[in-house]
Amino acid sequence: MKTQRTLLVICALGYATSTMIKKSITEFFEAQGVANWTVDTIGLTMAKDRLDTADLIVSSLGLNQTEYKVPVLNGVPLISGIGRDAVLQEILDNVKRLDG
């Protein structure tokens, strides 16, 4: 049995932008059969309390990877559409690696 994992979507306030990114990821996970991941949204100021539970972060804010213990991916292409498929593949690659 696979462990339940969490992908945390971080944007400035945790509302509109992160919700759009979450929708893209959730639909992608469903299409790919990824069932053991929860996708949550949160604003940057509240994210510190949730970082210990995150296995992967997708953000629209250009977060610095060196400040986080888990992979941080750029979520802007999931809003703009430019490079969307590449980001979704990068997310899937990380999910597969983490699921081992």
UniProtKB/TrEMBL annotation:
Source taxon at top rank: Bacteria
InterPro entries: PTS_EIIB-like_sf, PTS_EIIB_2/3
UniProt cross-references to Pfam families, sorted A to Z: PTS_IIB
Lineage: Bacteria, Bacillati, Bacillota, Clostridia, Eubacteriales
Entry protein name: Phosphotransferase system EIIB component type 2/3 domain-containing protein
GO biological process: phosphoenolpyruvate-dependent sugar phosphotransferase system
Keyword Magnesium recorded: no
Keyword terms of this UniProt record: Transferase
GO MF, any single term: protein-N(PI)-phosphohistidine-sugar phosphotransferase activity
Domain named Phosphotransferase system EIIB component type 2/3: residues: 8-89
